[in-house]
Amino acid sequence: FPNLSTVAITLRGSKSASHNTWSAVAWSRGTGFTEGPTYDIWPIVDRVGAGDAFAAGLIFRLMHADTDLAGALSFAVAASCLKHTVPGDLNIVGAEEVERLMRGDRSGRVQR
Description:
Layout: E1 6-16, E2 19-28, E3 32-35, E4 39-41, H1 50-64, H2 69-83, H3 95-103, E5 109-110
Parallel strand pairs: 4-5
Antiparallel strand pairs: 1-2, 2-3, 2-4
């Protein structure tokens, strides 16, 4: 893949079916490896769509914000973390809610 410039993957730590940790790592040619924040999610409402929310958050932030890969990764992890608290396939949270989580206490639980 000679034209590949960025790769990212989520990291799920399973404590139980309704309690997980959630993070991600990414690599790019320009910056090398970067690790996102880790969130403790309990209770999980719905895991469906969390990966899509991660990808959408990463792409959105890289395309529409003046941010580096670490900032985009942090946004994507927070967006997908919040998706775990929303029933159904779609992540109905807005960018402001994602940014509030990013500014909040990362060691606590995420609740909606």
